[in-house]
Design goal:
The protein is built from 14 helices and no strands. By secondary structure, it is mostly helical.
């Protein structure tokens, strides 16, 4: 434990935030497959995996869920000193991040049950639209024409993605997935706003909120219908919610909101692959093409942003010379 109150092991891992986000996305990507394999109520699944995720995060950070942030709580204080005052601005960031991520988890599981895994994950990853639209105001991280072009391309990909599934039972799942994209975008923004405190507190609290909301559905659903559901639920809680939450909290402290979403695009790229390989659910041609358009826009966004940063650095060096 150092003078800021952070665990030294966590700080070592935090030196590579991009790798943390990439591994987080890879673990997330198995969610669609495992959710499809569990024969149980969708909200009951969401609740139990959140409970297991909360236990995992609590053990990893040795901190239970909390609803307040106190001023200078990272600093070492006299054991007999009075408790620090509540930092209300940081507390609002904590609570909004937790509520939005809880909503994301609760929306995504029913969406995956009601539509294809490809549609569910790719519609959730429309979240860059909301980060680009509201991020500059809420995080101070400004956008440029590259960001706007990326949003236009993502919207075009969404149209293609939905083209083959308009009407029928698929649309309800598509709408839930689209809403999870809104809440996930908001989650990323408020986790980024909490970068100087502890984003992990928001993620841990979100698991508790998700479990409490789903508790009536868990009781009503009774026991899962297959023996395979139990290890699958354990995998979802620990490896698809808990450990990714730890990795996300490490990465989001150092990586801007939009860039963090771009890195985690590994999830929508791999999620339908696992489902197609192991569950036999093949997405439609238009869904595949729409997903490729979305991913291409994200990759182009990364490349153009990097090139712009290099040009800016070269121009600054020339001015100094």
């Amino acid at each position: 434990m150092d003078a800021t109150g952070n665990d030294s092991k966590t700080k070592k891992v935090a030196l590579n935030p991009v790798a943390a986000l990439a591994l987080c996305a890879l673990l997330w990507s198995f969610g669609g497959l495992v959710i499809k394999l569990i024969k149980w109520d969708a909200l009951a699944i969401a609740g139990v995996r959140s409970l297991l995720g909360m236990i995992t995060v609590t053990i990893a950070f040795r901190r239970p869920p909390k609803i307040f942030v106190r001023q200078n709580e990272n600093a070492l204080q006299d054991q007999n000193a009075r408790p620090a005052k509540i930092d209300w601005r940081a507390t609002v960031n904590l609570l909004l991040g937790a509520i939005l991520y809880a909503a994301t988890m609760l929306l995504f599981v029913p969406a995956t049950k009601m539509t294809t895994a490809a549609n569910a994950i790719l519609l959730q990853y429309t979240n860059p639209i909301y980060i680009i639209a509201f991020g500059p105001l809420l995080t101070g991280e400004k956008n440029d024409w590259i960001d706007i072009a990326a949003v236009a391309g993502i919207l075009a990909g969404m149209v293609l993605l939905l083209w083959g599934d308009l009407g029928g039972g698929q649309m309800a799942g598509n709408i839930l997935a689209l809403l999870s994209g809104v809440t996930y975008g908001g989650t990323t923004i408020f986790l980024r706003r909490a970068k100087n405190t502890r984003p992990s507190d928001s993620l841990n609290l979100s698991c508790l909120l998700s479990f409490l909301f789903a508790l009536p559905f868990i009781v009503k659903a009774g026991a899962p219908q297959s023996a395979m559901s139990y290890p699958a639920l354990l995998c979802l809680g620990v490896f698809q919610i808990g450990l990714p939450a730890v990795l996300l909290s490490i990465g989001i402290e150092k990586v801007p909101a939009l860039s963090s979403v771009i890195i985690t695009m590994i999830e929508p790229m791999m999620n339908p692959v696992w489902v197609a390989l192991f569950a036999g659910e093949i997405p439609s041609a238009s869904s595949i093409f729409g997903g490729l358009v979305i991913l291409a826009c994200i990759v182009a966004h990364v490349a153009l942003k990097r090139a712009a940063a290099v040009r800016k650095m070269r121009n600054a060096n020339r001015l100094q010379d």
